Amino acid sequence: MAQARDPWEFIVSTQKSGIYESNYLKGNSPDGNRGFWIKHNLLSAHETPDAGNAAAHLMGEFWVILFRRGHPPIVGKKLVPHTSLRLSNTNISIDTQKIHLQPTKATGTIGCIRWDLSLTEGGPPLLHLPWDWMYRAGFPKKKLVTPHPNARFNGRIQWGDQTWELDNWIGMRGHNWGTEHAHQYAYGNCNLWDDGVDRVVDGFTAQVKLGPVKSPWLSSLVARNPNIAQNQLRHWFRAGQVSPGQWRLGWPSPSSSDQNATVLTMSTDPTTYVGLRYEHPDGSESYCYNTKFADVEWRAQGERFTSKCGELEVLFPDPLADVPMHPTKEWDPGAGDYLSL
User: Fold this and answer.
1) How many independent structural domains does the chain possess?
2) pLDDT tens digits along 13-72
3) In a domain, 5, yes or no
4) Residue 136 maps to a domain
5) What is the 3-state secondary structure (H, E, C) of the chain?
6) 232: domain range?
């Protein structure tokens, strides 16, 4: 029997400097009208004087975003210095100022927003890189794995006098890290479908900087039910199209008439995005836009699947017009947590 692949279930930043790392949760209510996104980000400096203690120069960056269909998202952010971070180098464990993450448990408080969630494992991990050595090597610069691709969340999210009781909300737990964010990308995930069947699709199209040169668009897609792994090198250079409000990815191409082609389309009105400022380890900034309510059409193995609850995320080096960014430029981390309320 083949040995199980390493799902990278530890805090990578405890062993590597000069990277960013994100362990995040996302979920949708079964009726598709609400969603949440909780991000446990770690930023480490490129230079670590104490090579034996990569965690000594980390900054914790924690986000909670609540989505309500037809309403602006609610955003909270907290920054935590390395002296307050307690991290594990053997499993997924983050413990800091009122925020705690374990593989199947997450609790936290940012401003007046509080969460207390448990989650099921949701099946074996999805890996976007085809070979284990790619997760260890310097190339590619960004690593992506979905440890719990089809999880169920139970618990409670509260803010002010509002309470969401979560009863088998559908979502996932993700993990990514790297020396920099891609120059620009689209990422999509969906596991709440119109036909009610347990199914998950997870993929991206990205363009990276190679010194002063931009790479071609590179793509990967992995899925369950139907089981698909289009993440080999021969798939990377296949067609992917990225615009502010739409991502199309397909083999042999997004416009193919082949009934057996795999074609994924996610689209949204950009004004429905939440806009987040993303910092790179070198201090530069990119602009991330995310929704939990993208329209999805996925054709695979001769079948067609649809959803109104896709997660669509795009990142660009320049901000989009008419989408508010969080946190605002006026926010002073020294004055306390950021809240958009």
Assistant:
1) 1
2) 998 888 899 999 999 999 999 999 999 999 986 554 444 555 556 899 999 999 999 999
3) no
4) yes
5) CCCCCCCCCCCHHHCCCCCEEEEEEEEECCCCCEEEEEEEEEEECCCCCCCCCHHHHEEEEEEEEEEECCCCCEEEEEEEEHHHCEECCCCCCEEECCEEEECCEEEEEECCEEEEEEECCCCCCEECCCCHHHHHCCCCCEEEEEEEEEEEEEEEEEECCEEEEEEEEEEEEEEEEECCCCCEEEEEEECCCCCCCCCEEEEEEEECEECCEECCCEEEEEEECCCEEECCHHHHCCCEEEECCEEEEEECCCCCCCCCCEEEEEECCHHHCEEEEEECCCCCEEEEEEEEEEEEEEEECCEEEEEEEEEEEEEECCCCCCCCEECCCCCCHHHCCEECC
6) 12-339
